[in-house]
Amino acid sequence: MNDPMTTPWGEVALTRFPEDPRETLRAWDASDAYLLRHLATRDVPPTGTVVVLGDRWGALVTALAAHRPTQITDSWLGREATRANLARAGVETGAVRLLTTQDPPPERIDMLLVRVPKSLALLEDQLLRLAPALHADTVVVGAGMVKEIHTSTLRLFERIIGPTRTSLAEQKARLVFCTPDPSLRRPRNPWPYTYDLPDDVGGALPGRPVVNHAGVFCAERLDIGTRFFLRHLPGTAGGRRVVDLGCGNGIVGTAVSLADPAAEMLFTDESFQAVASAEATYKANGVPGQAEFRVGDGLAGVADGSVDVVLNNPPFHSHQATTDATAWRMFAGARRALRPGGELWVVGNRHLGYHVKLKRLFGACETVAADRKFVVLRAVRPE
Questions:
Q1: What is the rounded distance in angstroms from the CA atom of residue 351 to the CA atom of residue 34?
Q2: CATH topology for 193-380?
Q3: How far lies 217's CA from each of 155, 181, 247, in Å?
Q4: Which of 296, 265, 300, 302 is nearest to 283 (CA)?
Q5: Is 51 left (phi over 0), alpha (psi -120 to 50) or beta?
Q6: What pLDDT tens digit does each residue of the chain (383 aa) get?
Q7: SS3 of 318, please?
Q8: N vs C: which end of the chain shows fewer Cβ within 10 Å?
Q9: How far, in Å, CA of 33 to CA of 29, rounded?
């Protein structure tokens, strides 16, 4: 959806990535516009090193491109949207520095703009990583919708950076103003976090370590959907090529590798934090097999008909919005990448009705297991 955002400096045409004419979600919201209006009213324009943390689709970076900002994002899709939006705006390559949450941050930050993420853990991790680069005169402004900014959010800013206050709400958006305190004693960064799998997961998995970087779904414990999936995975991959699609912390693919070390694994996710977690989990378990770890758009770049098994626990949220667009693209990508006779295994909440989509794509869908909340489905690419 191409929906221009009006800024104090003119309109900016913005889209999500990948572009989809059926997509109804826009690439910016009222909090992005509110933050830009605030910056335009300041007596002193952005100067020095401007860092934008968590810019979801590049709206802030594109609007502020004249100030040569640095973007820090956990999202590969968000970064590609930023590239596309900058190109659409005629911004020269190199005018904006694009970093991931896994990259070393700038050594000095003069203005820090924070698009408050859904994950409080990711905000904690990133503020702790960036805090040493702040100084007493650094301007720190956060932005988010009212429903995204909680008392715990403000306490986090205050605990890591310094005194914090909020603005009045405008169009259900709010700003966070934080004054850096160089004398503040910051807590130790608890991320990445490691826990051991519980006894009820079955097989050789109990006690196995799982490593989670901040922002990965359910990072402090095994979520119940993955727990159910682990009990009903394919018995063996038969030494074939297997993809953990949307891998998160990688425990599903690691479980398959432990059961069948001859399997050739590919872990892929659009989150840099997730792929780093998957690689750390795989290595922590000392799996002797082959594995590749790739950040990207699902199975894009994987050759047609080159995969034997795809394992998938698809997300049904895009930031705060509920959508099945990501699941649909994952399923379609899996069908293309699977060889004839190859299998897609999916776990999901029963109410999401994934079996309907899988039957449309594959012609048939088998229920492997189900309980009151979750279902494991198996679809085979026709010969």
A1: 36
A2: Rossmann fold (3.40.50)
A3: 22, 31, 10
A4: 265
A5: beta
A6: 677 999 999 999 999 999 877 777 899 999 999 999 999 998 777 889 999 999 999 999 999 999 999 999 999 999 999 999 999 999 987 899 999 999 999 999 999 999 999 999 999 999 999 999 999 999 999 999 999 999 999 999 999 999 999 999 999 999 999 999 999 999 999 999 999 999 989 888 999 999 999 999 999 999 999 999 999 998 766 668 999 999 999 999 999 999 998 899 999 999 999 999 999 999 999 998 889 999 999 999 999 999 999 999 998 744 444 457 889 999 999 999 999 999 999 999 999 999 999 999 999 999 999 999 999 999 999 98
A7: strand
A8: C
A9: 7
> Domain limits of the chain?
5-178, 193-380
Please state whether beta strands 173-178 and 209-212 pair in parallel, antiparallel, or not at all (unpaired).
Answer: unpaired
Q: Which two tokens stand for residue 243?
A: 């993809």
Q: In terms of C-beta density within 10 A (0-12 exposed, 13-18 middle, 19 or more buried), how is residue 142 classed?
A: buried
Sorted by sequence, the CB contacts under 8 Å of residue 321 that are 6+ apart come out as 25
Angstrom CA distances, 377 to 135, 228, 352, stand at 53, 12, 12
Handedness of CA 350, 352, 356, 358 (dihedral sign): negative
Q: Which helix (H) or strand (E) holds 382?
A: none
| Rounded CA separation 335/99 (Å) | 32
Residue at token pair 């958006």: 173
In CATH terms, the fold of domain 5-178 is Rossmann fold (3.40.50)
User: In sequence order, which residues have a C-beta less than 8 Å from that of residue 45 and are 6 or more positions away?
Assistant: 39, 67
What's the whole-model pTM score?
A: 0.95
Tokens representing residue 310 in the block = 């795809």
Residue 155: count of CB within 10 angstroms of its CB: 12
Number of helical H runs and strand E runs in the chain: 10, 20
SS3 track for 202-231: CCCCCCCEEEECCCCCCCCCCCHHHHHHHC
Record the tokens describing residue 190, joined without a space. 């608890």
Tokens, residue 136 = 């007493």
| 3-class DSSP state of 100 | strand
Q: State the greatest distance between any 2 C-alpha atoms of the chain, in Å, as a whole number.
A: 67
